[in-house]
Amino acid sequence: MYGEEPSGPAVHAAGVFRAAGARDVLELGAGHGRDALYFAREGFTVEATDSSAIGLEQLRRGALAQDTDGWVTTAVHDVREALPLPDGAVDAVFAHLLLCMALSTEESRALVDEIRRVLRPGGMFVYTVRHTGDAHYGAGTAHGDDIFQHGGFAVHFFPRALVDALADGWNLEEVHAFEEGDLPRRLWRITQTLPRGAPSPRHRPTSSSTTPACCASLFCSAAAPLFTAPAPALSRTSSPPTRRHPSTCPPGAT
Ligand SMILES: C[S@@+](CC[C@H](N)C(=O)[O-])C[C@H]1O[C@@H](n2cnc3c(N)ncnc32)[C@H](O)[C@@H]1O
Q1: 8-216 sits in which CATH class?
Q2: Closest Cα partner for 6 from 87, 49, 62, 45?
Q3: Are strands 141-142 and 147-150 parallel, antiparallel or unpaired?
Q4: Which one of 100, 189, 190, 202 counts the least CB within 10 Å of its CB?
Q5: Is the pTM of the predicted complex or chain greater than 0.90?
Q6: Nearest C-alpha to atom 1 of ligand 1 is from which residue?
Q7: Per-residue confidence of the chain (254 residues) as pLDDT tens digits?
Q8: Peptide bond preceding 212: is omega within 30 degrees of 0, i.e. cis?
Q9: Which residues have C-beta atoms less than 6 Å from ligand 1?
Q10: Which is the closest atom of ligand 1 to the Cα of 78?
Q11: DSSP character at residue 205
């Protein structure tokens, strides 16, 4: 339905994730994987989830074909359930056109709480939603909570107040309006980050003189070991090969 090319929001997100020093990305509602595969090609380790096993099967075939299968983990998962990851497991979360599916406001709130739980301090969440300025807002059957079913497809159109509410306790970095498709669909791309707070032990330098400059980047592995263990509910089909992170880390700081 969405083709093989990465979405514009994914291309943007890869840039901001890289600039923040992120290394691993959790993608929710990954579908057949156009964006997950792009993140993997861009050098990120990707954990891709979706409630559709069919889409994820296609994603895995794509990863094999592109030789990025060692960098992509998939899990069939409904985001109305707790995320299948431990606390503080990932640097960044991406969700394109997921929160505006038929999730109630309460389900969206619970999901964002879960995203907060699995992100490391300073972690970044980029998501997109159709909003109440969309031409289809109010069309079709109303299901409450700004959810309207039109042409057999239910969409939660986000009011700005909901974006702000979901950013409560986060730093809301950007709400970017854009259009997509023929209708056109009117969307927001939202970027929010977790406050850094106290540094976690893995990021605490032991000596400023031995810390490379790139370790100003929150997620640089040169400062301390990074999360490497796969989450219990996620499994990799093969071990990832060693490769350099896309950010400018020194040799040896993979
Ligand atoms: C509009 S598609 C977008 C797919 C992908 N992000 C992309 O842009 O190519 C929405 C995706 O969310 C998934 N989805 C819908 N409800 C979900 C839920 N409750 N939990 C997990 N995934 C869900 C669908 O299976 C579908 O793949």
Answers
A1: alpha beta
A2: 62
A3: antiparallel
A4: 202
A5: no
A6: 97
A7: 577 899 999 999 999 999 999 999 999 999 999 999 999 999 999 999 999 999 999 999 999 999 999 999 999 999 999 999 999 999 999 999 999 999 999 999 999 999 999 999 999 999 999 999 999 999 999 999 999 999 889 999 999 999 999 999 999 999 999 999 888 999 999 999 999 874 443 333 333 333 333 333 333 333 222 222 333 344 343 444 445 444 333 333 33
A8: no
A9: 2, 7, 29-31, 34-35, 50-52, 55, 78-80, 96-98, 101
A10: 20
A11: -
Q: How far is CA 196 from CA 44, 200, 215, in A?
A: 21, 9, 15
Contact between residue 96 and residue 190 where contact means Cβ atoms under 8 Å apart: no
* The two structure tokens encoding residue 242: 């060693």
Instruction: Say how many residues make up the chain.
Output: 254
Sheet of strand 72-76: strand arrangement = 72-76, 45-50, 24-28, 90-96, 119-130, 185-193, 171-180
C-alpha–C-alpha distance, residues 24 and 89, integer Å: 9
* Angle, alpha carbons 124-126-130 (nearest 5°): 155
